[in-house]
Amino acid sequence: MNLFNVRIVVTGGAGFLGSYIVQLLRERGAIVNVPRSAFWDLRNREVVEEYLWGTKPDIIIHAAAQAGGIGLNQEKPGELFYNNAIMGIHLMEEARKVGVLKFVQLGTICEYPKFTQTPFREETLWDGYPEDTNAPYGIAKKALLVMGQAYRKQYGLNAVHLLPVNLYGPRDNFDPSSSHVIPALIRKFVMARWEGQKQVTLWGDGSASREFLYVEDCAEAVVKAVESYDEGEPVNIGTGSEITIKELSSLIARLVDYQGKVVYDVSKPNGQPRRCLDTSKAKEKFGFEAQTKLEIGLIKTILWYYRHLLGWTDDHIPSSEQK
């Protein structure tokens, strides 16, 4: 599909991933609308109805979500389930009424069972219950996969479901109460270094593994799927490689030059034991392969944190970290 002059609504388009998706779509000539949450509450069916009939999109990319790390998932499981489920339900129902040609749902790696043979293959998505600490969030997203497949069958809605791994990069959420692992670790180690802390304590035992995808790569995958993927089966979006939290912590500590001690609080949960995707389907179906190496992406993210959130100039950043 050529996206020139195609009307596209991107929910969450002012957010982390969404802002990169919007940028790429506009570069391809698409006409992009972004419903800002301050004015358009997507949990309200009448609001969704009014917005979609007013914009008459050809395509919807549903990237809006309420998400966070293990702490947020433990604190607000009901809120995470309701808000994520209800937004998608209202959007998809009103999308088929308006006559949207394609609905692209951004799912989550949390939809997979807690114990899944690695690398995760899309065919194993229903082989067990998700990891307990984020199951409500994962199941809410998984329900939207079922809804999309049902709407494809009954109404002919071209509903696509993508499964991105953990994202990171510039513009990420660094709020300690709701951030994911990479921004949380960057913030923790940077603050520890500049405050002279001799020890940093992290959750779990460090043995859990995760796969991380640079946000610009994910945005490219989403746009490629918009252009070229029209099937109902979910597709993994990732790099196909994993790293343990202990290894990741050591890498980030080195990149920010933190030389203190790292200890692990084993009374806190690890989350899912391993996460690593089989990404062959994305390559086969719409030609996506991640391009950004983890260390390069981390350096870009750390520099963005220094400059945009801490307000440091290059004079304050060690020259070794600017390279």
Please summarize what this structure is.
The chain has 323 residues and is of the alpha/beta class. 43% of the residues lie in helices and 15% in strands. It is built from eleven helices and twelve strands.
Structure description:
This protein has 323 residues and is of the alpha/beta class. The chain has a single domain (7-322), classed as Rossmann fold (3-Layer(aba) Sandwich), CATH 3.40.50.720. It is built from 11 helices and 12 strands. It has helices at residues 16-27, 45-55, 70-75, 77-98, 135-155, 181-195, 215-228, 245-255, 280-286, 294-309, 319-322, and strands at residues 7-11, 31-33, 59-62, 102-106, 158-164, 166-168, 199-203, 209-210, 212-214, 235-237, 243-244, 261-265. The chain has a 6-stranded parallel sheet, with helices on both faces. α5 (135-155) links the parallel β4 and β5. α1 packs across α7 (215-228), α6 packs across α8 and α6 crosses α10 (294-309). The chain is globular and about 60 Å long. The two termini are 39 Å apart. The model has no long low-confidence stretch (mean pLDDT 94).
Helices and strands, with pairings:
Blueprint lengths: L6 E5 L4 H12 L3 E3 L11 H11 L3 E4 L7 H6 L1 H22 L3 E5 L28 H21 L2 E7 L1 E3 L12 H15 L3 E5 L5 E2 L1 E3 H14 L6 E3 L5 E2 H11 L5 E5 L14 H7 L7 H16 L9 H4 L1
Parallel strand pairs: 1-2, 1-3, 3-4, 4-5, 5-10, 6-9, 7-12
Antiparallel strand pairs: 8-11
